[in-house]
Specification:
The structure is a homodimer of 173-residue chains. Chain A has eight helices and eight strands, in the order H-H-H-H-E-H-H-E-E-E-E-E-E-H-E-H. Chain A is an alpha+beta fold and 173 residues long. The first copy, chain A, folds into two domains: 110 residues, Arc Repressor Mutant, subunit A; 59 residues, Dna Ligase, domain 1, CATH 3.30.1490. Chain A has a three-stranded antiparallel beta sheet with strand order 1-3-2. In chain A, a hairpin with a 5-residue loop joins strand 6 and strand 7. In chain A, helix 1 runs antiparallel to helix 3 and helix 4 crosses helix 5. In chain A, 21% of the residues are buried. Chains A and B meet through helix 7 and strand 8 of A and helix 7 and strand 8 of B. Strand 8 of chain A pairs antiparallel with strand 8 of chain B. The structure holds manganese (II) ion (MN) (2 copies) and zinc ion (ZN) (2 copies). The site of one zinc ion has 8 residues of chain B, from helix 8. Chain A binds a DNA duplex (30 and 30 nucleotides) through helix 4 and helix 6.
DNA sequence: TTTGTTATTGGAAACCATTTTCAATAGGAA
DNA sequence: TTCCTATTGAAAATGGTTTCCAATAACAAA
């Protein structure tokens, strides 16, 4: 917490350019990692960098391969360990889209949450992020969460919505 | 199709008792399996029987163990194969609740669909079936499906909603 | 009922994403 | 710079699921 504040203080004395770079990259994640008492290692930083530069839903191996390009020393094991930690502190979401491997995306960008749900093509595995009905969906989910929490004595922390179907390509085949 | 009709004809000449037994058991599934051109084997019948007698979300091994009690000759491999087939013909749903194994439930009872969604306890893995907001949820999902189908050119066939949280037991620990 | 065809089976081995183990290394507070 | 120990990479283990293949059983036809 104090760490995040310190970074902000620095910005006030630096140029607008640097602030823009901060917003673009994953630098804002670093304070979060350290805030939880974890060491910010080259591998962890590289994994965050890869995740922050894509809208895709990468598997552990996808991430391993991409990180390898700029930091060849990394091992697949560490990618798994890093992802596990990032999921635990809530910085990353872990999904199962039914293709036998876990897939990951950053839970939050520099501009805050970018809540969306997913369309999954059962033909080719394509994943589409959509935000179209998010507001209505979230409103209903919130209401349902309250009702369900009460009735079933559950402390609900999270939800998952996915639609399955065939994308245009797969339909025309 | 004709096969189902034949079964109905038989009932007219049989007792009410037998009709009740039919409604209770999984007999109605059999026509479905054969209707798709699959052989109705002892193993497949036993798997359907286990699935039709529970509200739980069993793993392949759970089912294997239960089937074993009445039909010890069955192999785990066949349970996997049978479940795969039942999912393919739409008689069974396959879920991933995040505990590393697939879980299954009958998609439809003798009285038709019994649509519900799930509450998942991230502490102990408990799954709760709920029907409380199903109508509203399904209404919204239907609307969303239409919008999303059009906008993203997806032929949506299915959806998934799950809430994650802590059950009462896990909260008090 | 018997027969013939072949879909289905059980068991063993293979598969493969993920986890564990362990000695070597590097982050970062002092 | 030093020291402590969290973190690492490589190799091996794990465990759910799939593949392989010869034996078997479902069931249409006779
Ligand atoms: Mn996404
Ligand atoms: Mn259920
Ligand atoms: Zn597709
Ligand atoms: Zn629980």
């Amino acid at each position: 917490m104090e760490r995040l504040f310190l970074l902000k203080m620095v910005f006030i004395n630096k140029s607008k350019v640097m602030e823009k770079e901060f917003e673009r990259g994953h630098h804002w994640c670093r304070g979060r990692v350290k805030g939880f008492g974890f060491r910010l290692t080259l591998g962890r930083d590289a994994v965050l960098d890869v995740l922050s530069r894509t809208e895709d839903h990468l598997s552990a191996e996808d991430i391993y391969i991409r990180v390898h390009e700029t930091y060849p020393a990394i091992g697949l094991t560490s990618v798994y360990r890093t992802l596990d930690m990032l999921v635990n502190i809530g910085l990353v979401y872990k999904f199962d889209f039914g293709d036998g491997r876990a897939r990951f995306e950053l839970a939050e960008g520099p501009k805050g949450k970018d809540h969306h749900h997913h369309l999954v093509c059962t033909g080719c595995g394509r994943i589409v992020n959509y935000r179209d009905f998010i507001d209505e969906e979230v409103a209903l989910l919130k209401k349902a969460e309250e009702g369900l929490s009460e009735k079933h004595n559950f402390a609900i922390t999270n939800h998952l919505i996915q639609f399955y179907g065939l994308c245009e390509d797969c339909r025309n085949k």
